[in-house]
Amino acid sequence: MTVMCGKDYISIVVIEDFFKYYKVPLESLHLTNKTCRAGREVIDGIAYYIVRTPKDQYIPCGGKPLENNMTHLSYSLTLMSDPQVHENIVREPVIKIEYKCVYPYIRRISLPFPIIPFSSETVLRVDELEAKVEMNLFKDHTYTEAFTSAPTIHLRDKVYVQVRVTEPEDFFHLRVNECWATQTPKPNETTSMHTLLQNGCVDDETVAFLNSSADDTGRNGVGSTVQYTFDMFRFVVEPHELYLHCTVRLCPPDDGGPCIPECKTITKREAVKGDPTQGLLSYGPIRIEVPESQKSNLLIVLVLPVGVIWVLGVFLLILITVAKAGSRRLSRLSRT
């Protein structure tokens, strides 16, 4: 028996000989909802009975209520057979097979290079499913063209960030819990760190989520894509590069309440821990472009005090020389 957890379906595959042994015909096999029936397929010369359930048919076909804990989400279906009635008795056993697919829904993501990379992606395999979450930086508010090399961005210009579940697409809702910038690729750095999002809420006055649209794409915790912006900044000391890191959580589509952040109170962000149920996305370096006028002004500020010191020195030297000459002249006049 094989259970396949695809990005948009759940399947069970059982060899035909198993059912023949128990004298269970194909036409008697179905899920809890009898309209969702098994089919027969021959693969490499071997016959199998297969039930493939698309994700939008999980509940209609009799899928059990979703089970979740702090880290994972479980989908469960049951394949069963009708009793084989002979006159008014049953001799053959009724087959009942319960099968599950388990998905993690807490992930931590970071952009693992300064804002030089094209995108950042984290992958977590569960059974046969590869769940992928990706973070990209885009060139403008349309979110149509992502940077394909390390971006260089002017101070105070908008930085357009997108985090989305790429596989399985449109299966989970996505909540971005925390985002912060560091001066190095290390997400746990505390010496040069600036928080943008905390507990799913804004922690920098320039941060803004994409305005809600008809399908709510871009809002935090509502769909499989989150888009937000912040104003470009730099740390006081060089190098003038940023690395962006975010932690995310995956939520079942019918469990939207806990996924949408309540932005009333904010607690301090905990240090990043090596929790296998979390995925970290990092992006960087993001380079800051300093205008030439600012560089020139800095040079003037540095050179001007040195010039003032020289002028004052020469002026004092002249005063001392004049004072000494006057003193000698008065001395001669007094002797005469």
Structural write-up:
- With 336 residues, this protein is an alpha+beta fold.
- It has two domains: 2-104, Zona pellucida, ZP-N domain (Immunoglobulin-like), CATH 2.60.40; 106-289, Sandwich (Immunoglobulin-like).
- The protein has three helices and 22 strands.
- Strands 11, 14, 16, 17, 18, 21 and 22 form a seven-stranded mixed beta sheet that branches. It has a five-stranded antiparallel beta sheet with strand order 12-13-15-20-19, with no helix packed on it.
- Strand 4 and strand 5 form a beta hairpin.
- It is rod-shaped and about 145 Å long.
Quick tags:
about 325 residues, alpha+beta, Immunoglobulin-like, five-stranded antiparallel β-sheet, signal, Zona pellucida glycoprotein d, membrane
At the third CATH level, what is the topology name of the largest domain? Immunoglobulin-like
Number of strands: 22
The percentage helix is 10-25%
CATH 2nd-level architecture of the largest domain: Sandwich
What is the chain-wise order of helices and strands? EEHEEEEEEEEEEEEEEEEEEEHEH
Average pLDDT level: 76
| Total separate domains | 2
Report the C-alpha radius of gyration, rounded: 34 Å
| Name of the level-1 CATH class of the largest domain | Mainly Beta
How far apart are the termini? 129 Å
Sum up the overall morphology in one term. rod-shaped
| Tally of individual helices | 3
Assign the structural class, choosing from mainly alpha, mainly beta, alpha/beta, alpha+beta, or little secondary structure.
alpha+beta
Uncertain regions: pLDDT < 50 for 5+ in a row? 266-278, 295-304
Sheet with most strands? 7 strands, mixed
- As a percent range, the share of strand residues is 35-45%
* CATH superfamily descriptor of the largest domain: Zona pellucida, ZP-C domain
